[in-house]
Amino acid sequence: MVAARQQQRRWYGVPVLLALYLGYVGLGAGVLQALERPAEMQVAQHLLQEHWKLLANYTCLQGPALQRLFQGIIQAYKSGITLQGNTTSLGRWDFSGSFFFSISAITTIGYGNLSPSTAAGRIFCIVFALFGIPLNLVLLNEIGQLMLLGVQHCAHRLEELFHWQKKASLLIKTCALVTGLLLFLLLPPLLFSEKEGWSYEEGFYYSFITLSTIGFGDYVIGMNPDRTYPGWYKNIISLWIPFGMAWLALVIKLCINFLESSSDICQCKKKSTEMVEDLMDGSKTNITGLHNLEICNHKDTKAKGLDESHSYPAPKEAQ
Amino acid sequence: EAMCSGKLQTGLLVAGYFIYLLVGAAVFQALERAAEKQEKMAAAQMKEAFLQNFTHLTVAEMEQFMKNLTEAIQNGVYPVGNESQIEDSNWDFSDSFFFAGTVVSTIGYGTLRPKTAGGQIFCVFFALFGIPLNIVFLHRVGKMLSLLCKKLGKFLYEKGMRKKRIKSLTLLFFLVTGILVFLCLPSLFFQMTEGWSYSEGIYFAFITLSTIGFGDYVIGKQPGRNYFSYYRMLVAIWILFGLAWIALLFNL
After folding, report:
1. Which of A276, B10, B133, B135 could pair covalently with A285 via S-S, beta carbons 3.0-4.6 A apart?
2. Cβ–Cβ of A142/B10 closer than 8 Å?
3. Which residues does UniProt assign to the signal peptide (chain B) (predicted)?
4. Whole-model pTM above 0.80?
5. Beta-carbon separation of A115 and B140 below 8 A
C-alpha cells in the first residue's frame, strides 16, 4: 500500500515539476528580454547609421559588392578569423588553442569561439567527446571526493579538539562553502580584470558561466590578440577549471538535495532511504559528474566507517 | 594497501586525463590547421579584391569599417539585407525562451547572450537555481522512462527470458531506439529545415545533447529561411527528451 502511494506521488510529481520548470524558464525569458532588448536596439540602430553613412560617403560602393563583403566578413568571423590588421597573424589552431578546445569539449563547456570546420574534425570531435566526457566525469568525481573528505577530516579534527557536537559540521560546511566561493568565484575575477581588462562583474559572469559548463564563449580567457599573457596564466586557469567545476557541482548537489527534500512531505524512513537510493542510482542527470559523486560518496562514507550524519549527499540518513 | 592502490588509481586517472587531452589537441591541430590557413588566405584575398575595386577607400578607413562590422557581428547584428531587419529583434519572446532553456540545461550555445551587466548578473543567478531544477526535472523524466523500461522487462520475464538477458536486451533496445529517435531522425529533419548536410545534422544533435553546445550550428538562424511557427518549441521538446534519454541511459 505504501508502495502504491509512493508510486502515485511519483506520477503526480512529474506534471507539477514540468509546470514549474516551464514557468521558471518562461520567467527567465521575460526578464532577459526586458533587460536585453533595449540595448540591442541601440546597437542595431548604431550599425545601420554607420552603414548608411558609409554608403553615403562613398557613392561608388554598390549594394551587391558591399553585401558580398559583408557575407565574407561574417563567414570569416564564424570561422574564428578576425579580419583586422595583418591577416598573417598566428592562427587559432596552434597547439595551445587546440588544447584549450579539447578541454572545452570534454568538460562540455563548449565555448565555441573555436570550432572544427572540417568534416573530419567534426567527426573526430564527436568520437573524442563520446569517450572524453565520461573520463571527465570520473575525474571530477575524484576531485569532489577529495574535497569532501578534506572537509570531513577538518570537521572531525575540530570535534575532537573542541568537543563540539553537531555545530562543528555546520560551521565547517559553511567555512568550506565560503572558501570555495572566494577561491573559485570571487577572487578569479580580480585576476581576470587585470589580465584581460574585463570589469569585475564580467569576470564573475565569465567564471560562473565557465564553471557551470554553460560556456557561452562571449568571454574567453587568453584570446585577446592585443594582450600578452604570462606563462603561468594558462596553467593556473587549467587548475582552476576542474577544481572549480567539482566545487560548483557539490554546491549544486546541495541545492538539489534541498529541492528534492522539500518536495517530499512524507518523512517516513523507508521513503527517505528509497529516495536517497534513487539519487544514488547513478542517473546521469548532469554532465558535471553529480551522479558519480552521489554513488561514490554514499559508498565511501559507508565503507570508511565515517558514520556521517553530516555529509552532503544524504541529509536524511541521519534519521 | 587499499589506500595505496587508491592513490595509484587517482594518479593514473589524472595522467590518463592529461594524455587524453594532449592527444586530442594534437589531432585537432592536425585536422583543422590546414583548413584555417585556407580560410585566412581567402579572407585576405577578399579584402584585397574589395580594396582594388574601390581604390579611393584608404586602408585605414577600411580597417575601421571592418572593426565596426566585426563588433556588430559579435553583438549578433548581421548587416546583411535591408533595414527592415531592425524591427526583428534577437530577443523576442521565443528566442529568449530558447535562450533561457539553453542556460538551464547548460548547453549554452552563445549565439545569443546577455550584453548588459544586469542581464549577465541575472543570468548567473538564474542559472544557479535553474540548473538544479533542470537536473531534478530530468531525473524525474528519466525515472518515468525507466519505469516503461521495467515494464518491458517484466513482460519479457513473464515470457520466460532470463534476467541477465532481459537487462542487456532492454539496454540495447533503448540505446538503438534512442539513437534513431534522438540522433538519426532529427538530423533528417534538420536537413530539411536548415539545409545542413546529414553529417552536420548529426554533429549538431550530438553537440547539443551532450550539452557541449559550441554554437557553430544553431537552429533557426539561417538567414533567408522561413521557419514554421512552432519550430523552436519542437526542437526544445526534442532537446528535453533527448537529455532525459541520456539520463536514462546512465540509469540503466
Report:
1. B135
2. yes
3. none
4. no
5. no
